[in-house]
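I hope you will forgive my troubling you with a question about protein structure. You will find the record immediately after this paragraph.
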Amino acid sequence: MALPAHAVAGKIFDFNLTLPIMVGQFLLLMVFLDKTWFTPVGKVLDERDGYIREQLKKFKVHPFYLYCFCAALQAIISVCQAGLPFSVDPDQACPGPCCATI
């Protein structure tokens, strides 16, 4: 039976070229993942963020318009609960002058 090879006395580890090769492989992996994975995913996330921010800017409204919208929805719900047929007319959806600017 063969005995295991021992390092020179006083040495705990015998690295030779293993450590520099592993560091090089790690750096290559890091660059590869950055170029092929993280950069494209970051672009998609930035595009989504910009799109969402633009949509939110479009829909910032005055609280009075929200009140009119809620009033119209409550009227529709009450008609539905009563079981009556109805049609939605955008000009008559909410009472008051707010509908002209919505």
Notes: DSSP finds two helices and no strands in the chain.
